[in-house]
Amino acid sequence: MARVDVEFCPYFQDAVELIGRRWCGAITRSLLPGPLRFSELERALPGISARALTQRLRELEEADVVARAVEASGPVRVSYELTAKGRALDEAIEAIESWAHDWLAPAHHTHVG
After folding, report:
1. Alpha-carbon distances of 30 from 2, 76, 100, rounded to whole Å
2. Which CATH code fits 11-108?
3. Which of 28, 55, 75, 85 is the most exposed place for a label (fewest CB within 10 A)?
């Protein structure tokens, strides 16, 4: 098989590091169907701490992947939703999920060699 030289792409590296950070991909995937409140995100992501969720949501907001919406009616309600930039990750996330089911699911953990 011939070696293919692929030029290093800093944008690809930035994208992989953002979405590949612990919980960032899972948060983004959870928000694909629509906005969720903090408590709904906590329930959707078993094992995440409130501190980690807060930190990752801030990072995703800074990257303009997630937007925080505050409703001031009665008790203040805060929800999180994907921005256009975040929604544009839909196909990439679906591709990663499909790959994970094909290659990481228990039925595929047999050694071929």
Report:
1. 40, 22, 16
2. 1.10.10.10
3. 75
